[in-house]
Design brief:
binds zinc ion, about 0% helix, about 70 residues, elongated
Length: about 70
């Protein structure tokens, strides 16, 4: 066996199951993730779900930003 199997509550159906991780990437220069995806600073949302569920893209996301970058006069 390789890697670790994650067991817990599916974020889609709420049942306890072996979970798969799906990431949704956003072209946002956030300070919470610090990830680079396709050469760009990217925010990602992680959905943990069972093998039966197809995760939907989240309708709302929480992002941490550096406020000064976005300040307007
Ligand atoms: Zn599920
Ligand atoms: Zn982020």
């Amino acid at each position: 066996m390789s890697g670790s199997v994650e067991y817990g509550k599916c974020q889609c159906c709420g049942k306890e199951a072996i979970l798969t991780r799906t990431y949704f990437y956003y072209d946002i220069d956030c300070t919470c993730c610090g990830s680079i995806h396709n050469g760009k600073k990217t925010h990602f949302e992680l959905i943990r779900h069972c093998s039966k569920c197809v995760p939907k893209e989240p309708t709302t996301i929480k992002v941490h930003l550096t406020a000064s970058k976005y300040k307007v006069d």
